[in-house]
Amino acid sequence: MAGVTADAVPEPPVDDEHSPGRPAPGPATIRPRATLEAAGELLRALSAPVRIAIVLQLRDSGRCVHELVDALGVTQPLISQHLRVLKSAGVVDGERHGREVVYRLVDEHLSHIVLDAVTHVEEE
After folding, report:
1. Within the chain, where are the H helices?
2. Four-residue CA torsion sign, 6, 9, 15, 20
3. What angle do CA 41, 61, 84 make, to 5 degrees?
4. Residue-wise pLDDT tens digits, 51-96
5. Has this prediction a pTM greater than 0.70?
6. Has residue 108 got a pLDDT over 70?
7. How far is Cα 105 from Cα 90, in angstroms, rounded to an integer?
8. In a domain, 97, yes or no
C-alpha cells in the first residue's frame, strides 16, 4: 500500500453520528497500517452472503443457531461455520443459556456497515 507506513500517527475518530463533537479527518487522512489491515479483515468476515444475512438477523436481538437456521433456510452446520468466522472476527459473541448459545452482535456499528451495503445495492 503506497504511502502508508507502519509508524503512521493515529488520527482522531471520524466525526459522524457515532462520535459527535470530534473533528472529521480530511480526505487525505492516512490511517495506521494496522488499522487498515484490521478493517480489511472485518470486511472479509462480512463478505459472505450468509454472514450478511446473519448480521441482519442479529440487528434487533440475539438468536440461537436453530432460530437462524429457520429464518435463513440453511443447514445447522453451515450456520455454525459462518458463526465461527463472525466470532473469530469479533463481529458476534455467544452466551450460553442452558443447552443453547445465543449469538449477538458485539457492536451496533457492525449492523450499520452491513445495512448500508445492502441499502446501497438496493438503490442501484
Report:
1. 33-45, 49-57, 65-72, 76-88, 108-123
2. positive
3. 35
4. 999 999 999 999 999 999 999 999 999 999 999 999 999 999 999 9
5. yes
6. yes
7. 9
8. yes
Give 11-40 pLDDT, tens digit per residue.
Answer: 444 444 444 555 666 677 889 999 999 999
3-state secondary structure of 94: strand
Domain, as residue range, for 88: 33-123
Q: What is the residue type of 123?
A: E
Q: Are 88 and 80 in contact (CB under 8 A)?
A: no
- CATH number reported for the structural domain that contains residue 93 in this entry: 1.10.10.10
Give, as one character, the DSSP assignment of residue 89. Answer: T
CA atoms of 65 and 71, how far apart (whole Å) = 10
